[in-house]
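Support case: user asked for a sample of complex input and structure output to validate their parser. Sending the pair below.
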Amino acid sequence: MKFPICFIIISTTYITNMTDEPVFTWEEIAKHNTEADMWVVVNDKVYDVTNYQLEHPGGPLVLLSRAGKNASLAFEQASHSKNAI
Ligand code: HEM
């Protein structure tokens, strides 16, 4: 099974933390909301799930419905296992 790439820790500003990790605003994340370019946020990390959607055991539609958004609550409510991410 392939797993989505985790990008980063998000922030509400571009002012970064002390690491070299990229930081995105919600405005930027919101642009990645299509099947062809899909990011979701789970627990303050951004995941590029574009190449993962068809492999997701919960199906692609639940990811599409949260594309470009905070999917943390939905992720938690779907009772994922500890190693899902
Ligand atoms: C980065 C985001 C996500 C990843 C990496 C991910 C990964 C996985 C994995 C590995 C499973 C298999 C079961 C497990 O190991 O827990 C799973 C199942 C599932 N996921 Fe996700 N998931 C993500 C986001 C979501 C979101 C946002 C939803 C919204 C509701 C969702 C809904 C489900 C459901 C309903 C199942 C159960 C499918 C079944 O048992 O038939 N997932 N997911």
